[in-house]
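In this notebook, the sequence line spells out the residues, with the fold written below as integer tokens. This is how one looks.
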Amino acid sequence: MTQPPHPLRVPALEPLMEPWIEKLGAALDALQADRLDDLAAARAAYADWFASRFPAPDGVTYEDGQANGVPVTRVRPGDTVDGRVLLYLHGGGYLAGAPKGYRGLVGRYATRLRAEAVIPDYRLAPDAHYPAAIDDNLAAYEALLKEGWDPGSIVVSGDSAGGAMSIALMVAARDAGLPLPAAAVAISPWANLEHTGRSIATKAAADPLCTPEALRTMALNYLGDNPLSSPLASPVFADVSGLPPVLVQIGEREIMLSDAVRLAEHLAAAQVRVNLEVWPGMPHVWHLFSGELAEADDALDSAVAFLDARLPAA
């Protein structure tokens, strides 16, 4: 069914997203053809395009290093509140994505929050299947605790696969007996790898980036022999009791919409403090276009306000 046009403050988002579709498509093609050398090259091209298209802001420094054996990029804005740190989990369908490509978004996010940030370079599939990405992100979180960061001054956020992992990471930390962060923001979370939400079909014509076929390919690639309902991959099936406050942000044009709403309902049913924001006319991870799309700036500001209210005062 053809979807009606959506009123935006820019002429159209599709042209902005066409190179993103192309770069992700190259990675998917290499994966499906089992051309691992080509996949490595496609991943590098994906990260390079992100880094060029969404450049790092002025006044922010970046340092690559290790945290508990996991490669990470540390992000330091010029003006921070002492003790605040944002752990940011990048997206890419567990197939692509890297901290290099997220210096722009995380740099702007951290600057607004006046916090340092850490972006783990977690392992991707098919090099390492589920739960390798969760294991790496949990190790990075544990490293922050070992470094002396107060858990009440740590916040977690991520987009797409990273949005789902923002929830799964806290579940894994709770189950490991670790203290939990102050709050989390899940941006366009890929929350249900079974893809049973109605919007998988009803938004298929409206979503300019994600397709049901691509999502299924990436889900099977990530999970290997594990079921699609594995709770740390699909947090709509996880025991989320006892988690700190969560903000879920999702675009109204996304095929992931129904499952993001389900995630918020699942958190609420477990008595987790949760805010749900559905942004009319917005596609997957529109926050990347902050600085050129008013809705992207507004959404990032809303995420920062949610986290700022749960962190120690400036």
Residues 1-11 have pLDDT under 50 and may be disordered.
